[in-house]
Structure formats: C-alpha cells, structure tokens
Design a protein that fits this description.
This protein is an alpha/beta fold. It has two domains: 100 residues, 60s Ribosomal Protein L30, Chain: A; 165 residues, 3-Layer(aba) Sandwich (Alpha/beta knot), CATH 3.40.1280.10. Helices cover 31% and strands 18% of the residues. It has a seven-stranded parallel beta sheet, sandwiched between helices. Strands 1-4-3-5-2 form a five-stranded mixed beta sheet, sandwiched between helices. Helix 5 links the parallel strand 6 and strand 7. Helix 2 packs across helix 3 and helix 5 runs parallel beside helix 8. One of its GO terms (biological process) is methylation. GO terms for molecular function: RNA binding; RNA methyltransferase activity. Belongs to the class IV-like SAM-binding methyltransferase superfamily. RNA methyltransferase TrmH family.
Length: 296
C-alpha cells in the first residue's frame, strides 16, 4: 500500500511470536495487550480509539475494499506495521478463515479517582470470578445493559486474557473497569459515591423484582463455585436472588448477572420516563446526567 512503511516478516519474527504467545496465553503479557483478529475486531479497536501496538496485514487474504481501507487506517495508526504471508497469518489467527487483518491492541486503563458516575448509574462488581469466558460475558452484558462501570475484587483472571476479549466481543476495550486489592477499599469507593449495593445470592435473599434501583446501583456477583467472599457480608447489604424453580440451586453467574442487570435497567428506565414527566413516586426529581469515564 502506498505511503505505508511495511516490514515484511515471517513466522519466526519476534513480533509474530508475541502474537502466538498472547493468543495462546503461554507467556507473560507484560504490556497488557490483546489480539484483535479479523476485520470486526480491528475495526472495533479503531472505532473505540484504542492504541494499536502492532498491526499485521496479509494482502492475499483481504477480500473487500472496506477491509483494505481499514488496513490502511490501522497501519497508519499502529506503532509498527507488518506484512505477512497468507501462511503466516493462518498460523497467527485462530479463525477458520483468516481475513488478513490482525492487531496487538493495548488494554485501556481507568483511574478510580477519575471515574465520574451518572446519578442513576448501574455498576457490576465481580468478586473472585475466575473463568475468563464468564468475565467476558459479564463485560458484554454490562455493555448491553448500559452499565457504566465494572469493579473487580479478588481478581482471579486477567482482563487481557484472550478468552475475555473473545467472549466479550471486544467490550473489554470499551466498558470502564477498575480493580481494588481489598474488598473494603471497593466498598469505601462505592459508598462514598452514594452507590446502593446489592449482593447476588440465592440464600436469604429478596426477589430480584423487588429491588429498589433508584440512584446509583451496584450488583455484586461472586466466584463460580464459592460465591461472594465474606467481607462483603459484614456491612448489611441486601441480598437479591433469582428464584430457582427446578432442581438446580443456582444459575451460571453470567446468566444471573444478566437477569439482575436488565431488571435494574428496566426499573431505571421506568424512573427516567417518569422523571422526564417531572415526577417519580409522587415527587419531583431531576433528570440524570450522562456518565463520563476517562481511560488513561
């Protein structure tokens, strides 16, 4: 392509080996990169303004003018741009039919001190989630339900894990997320901002359709096997659960979170509609403002 300083490399090049190691999760990921494989992933990274560390292009595999256009944009914005053969791209890609575009993308970082929440914010809290696919699904659900933030405590899996990126459909690059080393630090951060905290727990819980979702609301979901850790239970936060009407005693954590999130969003939407008319539950309220979260 005219104007692009391509470096032609093969499968033995260190940049290609980096892609293989990150995609297979077989080596330390010191720079917190994810593999964006294919047109949709590279295009999404560009749309989100993500930083492309390295971009790889196999012209033999590109089949559309749009893909060629995206390749030029990606190569122009990447720190390094490489041209590889179709055979090399097939080694790098996990797709059955590689599309000739692949990038190493830097994960964004959010500073807790810079997070600004809307007055009606919905927040996910994950406590000890360890299966990357579940974390990715939670991120995708957070985006779908318009949750403004994901807070992590007792983290067991990396946000840059390749399965998190794939199962989130790239939303790990988009949904703001912050991490706290101690549960009490997360609780302090949330309560200082007036967030009402609900613990997703089927034991001694209220029905999820009775939640009061006025104001800022956080839903805490726990480890796939052991649930939410003890420090969360020492503050009197209400427990909310999805009733189990069959033999099983619980749902998959990401399914439970989706039900609770969409119920909370529906209730908030109802309040916002009433708010637009100037009244909720017989009293006048102010319309919520938009959230602003700054990645760094």
């Amino acid at each position: 392509m005219v104007g692009i300083d391509w470096l032609r490399v093969g499968v033995g090049h260190p940049a290609v080996r980096d892609v293989l190691n990150i995609a297979r999760n077989t080596a330390p990921n010191r720079f917190n990169l994810v593999v964006a494989d294919g047109l949709w992933a590279v295009e999404l990274a560009l749309e989100l303004g993500s930083r492309l560390d390295r971009f790889f292009y196999a012209p033999e595999l590109v089949r559309s003018s749009n893909a060629a256009k995206v390749a030029i944009e990606a190569a122009s914005g990447a720190y390094r741009a490489y041209e590889v053969s179709a055979k090399t791209m097939q080694r790098m890609s996990e797709r059955d039919a590689p599309e000739g575009l692949l990038a190493l993308v830097a994960m964004p970082r959010w500073d807790p001190a810079q997070i600004e929440l809307s007055e009606d914010a919905l927040i996910f809290v994950t406590d000890g989630i360890e299966i990357p696919g579940n974390l990715g699904t939670l991120l995708r659900t957070a985006d779908g339900a318009h949750a403004e933030l994901l807070v992590m405590t007792n983290r067991r899996t990396r946000m840059s894990h390749p399965k998190v990126f794939r199962s989130s459909k790239g939303m790990s690059l988009h949904v703001p997320h912050i991490e706290f080393g101690q549960v009490d630090d997360a609780i302090s951060w949330l309560t200082e901002r007036g967030v009402h905290i609900y613990l997703a727990d089927t034991q001694d819980s209220v029905h999820y359709r009775t939640m009061d979702c006025s104001g800022r609301t956080a839903i805490v979901v726990g480890n796939e096997r052991y649930g939410i850790t003890n420090p969360w239970y020492g503050h009197g936060f209400p427990r909310v659960g999805v009733p189990m009407l069959g033999v099983a005693d619980s749902l998959n954590v990401s399914i439970s979170a989706a039900i609770l999130a969409y119920e909370a969003r529906a209730r908030k939407h109802h309040r916002q509609r009433c708010s637009a008319a100037g009244e909720v539950d017989g009293r006048r309220v102010a319309a919520p403002r938009s959230a602003r979260s700054r990645p760094r």
